[in-house]
Design goal:
It is a single chain. The chain is an alpha/beta fold and about 400 residues long. The strands form 5 sheets. A 5-stranded mixed β-sheet has the order 1-2-3-4-9, sandwiched between helices. A hairpin with a 7-residue loop joins strand 13 and strand 14. The longest helix is centred in the N-terminal third of the chain and has 18 residues. Keywords: Signal. It comes from Skeletonema marinoi.
Length: about 400
């Protein structure tokens, strides 16, 4: 009996010593090198984002991992606050903090409440403008507690007593506010509005119109917290905040330049567009091509444009599936899409107007590496087929080089 008892005790000791403790925080870094997919920002916006005192270096990204439960949620909270204390001591106080839960497997209810309180501590104790939570899944956080609702910046979560405006009220008309959307429901791609205003999350802006048409507007208020599905969406939102804090009009102009088609009144289009709409789409497409094809003259842009065929897609449409043959590339002109890795949970990337997708597969003859899905009400893509690409490469290699 003593031998058996000794064996069990030794086995138990070995098992306990073999347990590897996993810290709830995987790592933390500033976002100086974590640029979002909104790469085609205006020059003024880029200048702000590249500034060491005003730009991406003022975004702190903290990545969490594993299971968050009552045993390590306090460690998570204390570790985050310690990181912020260190930032303050070094004079690098962040303007935006991103808490990324993409690699978190589960969160229990008590820990979810601790995370909710952590948000308040970050804002009140460290003066952070916005705390952004990345849930990593379209259904929200992996917990029974409604954490997505609790930490999303609704009206109740605006800064207490804040009358801060990014421009003096005298500079704008009362009917002209433009604000970050503060949804009270968890983020979900199936929204009734044309999400393409211009992204699945951060780019949904409430644009006011008047009898004279679209007017310059100002972002008057910023929610102190926000929930995003992906890290890319969070980075876009954070970049918007940085630009807006410095000059709201620069952000407004930046949105106008990149998403002009989505801001137009009645952006949802019928399958057969009117001549006015076709003219607008052509203008926007040419502008995108000019931005993408650096150094191309007007004739070369015109040659590429005439090879493109407009296509209309609707919410939940699959443009192509992972593993399919690559027979075209697409220029996104209007709408929002999601690129998904089918065999990796949570591996996804948002795609926005002004982006080209599918060029790698077309040029290299490889199969599609991801599934491309529409997540806005409608999407307009301009497609370059394999046949047209081969024709262009053969007849005018110089112009073809702008694409590859």
């Amino acid at each position: 009996a003593a031998l058996v008892a000794g064996f069990i005790a030794a086995l138990s000791t070995y098992a306990v010593q073999s347990i590897t403790y996993q810290h709830p925080i995987k790592g933390a870094m500033c976002a100086a090198t974590l640029r979002s997919s909104a790469w085609n920002r205006s020059g003024e916006a880029q200048k702000i984002l590249l500034d060491k005192k005003k730009g991406r270096e003022r975004i702190l990204v903290i990545q969490c991992q594993g299971h968050i439960f009552f045993g390590n949620s306090t460690i998570l909270k204390e570790s985050v606050l310690e990181l912020l204390v260190e930032k303050r001591r070094s004079g690098d106080d962040p303007i935006v903090v991103i808490l990324d839960f993409t690699h978190v497997l589960a969160i229990d209810s008590s820990s979810a409440m601790t995370i909710e309180k952590l948000k308040d501590s970050i804002i009140k104790s460290f003066g952070v403008e916005v705390v952004i939570f990345v849930c990593g899944h379209e259904d929200g956080f992996r917990c029974h507690y409604d954490l997505s609702l609790k930490v999303n910046g609704g009206a109740a979560n605006k800064r207490e007593g804040s009358s801060k405006r990014l421009l003096d009220p005298i500079d704008i008309g009362e009917e002209d506010p433009i604000m970050f959307e503060t949804c009270k429901e968890p983020i979900h791609p199936n929204t009734s509005r044309a999400q393409a205003r211009a992204s699945v999350t951060a780019r949904a802006l409430d644009v006011s119109n008047s009898h004279s048409g679209y007017k310059n507007a100002v972002m008057a208020d910023i929610p102190n917290s926000h929930v995003c599905e992906t890290l890319d969406d969070a980075l876009i939102f954070a970049e918007d905040v940085l630009v807006a804090v410095q000059d709201a009009m620069i952000l407004q102009n930046d949105v106008d330049d990149r998403f002009r088609s989505n801001i137009l009144e009645g952006s949802g289009m019928a399958v057969k567009c009117s001549k006015t709409q076709q003219s607008s789409l052509e203008e926007i497409s040419r502008a995108f091509l000019t931005s993408l094809c650096t150094g191309a003259d007007a004739n070369e842009i015109d040659k590429i444009y005439r090879l493109l065929e407009p296509e209309m897609y609707y919410y939940n449409d699959i443009v192509w599936a992972q593993g399919e043959e690559s027979k075209s590339l697409k220029l996104i002109v209007d709408g929002s899409l999601l690129s998904l890795l089918e065999d990796e949970d949570g591996a996804r990337e948002s795609c926005y107007p002004g982006s080209i997708v599918g060029e790698l597969g077309l040029l290299n003859g490889t199969r599609r590496l991801t599934t491309l899905k529409v997540v806005s009400d409608k999407a307009v893509l301009y497609s370059l087929s394999q046949e047209q690409w081969e024709l262009l490469a053969c007849e005018d290699p110089k112009v073809a080089r702008f694409i590859d």
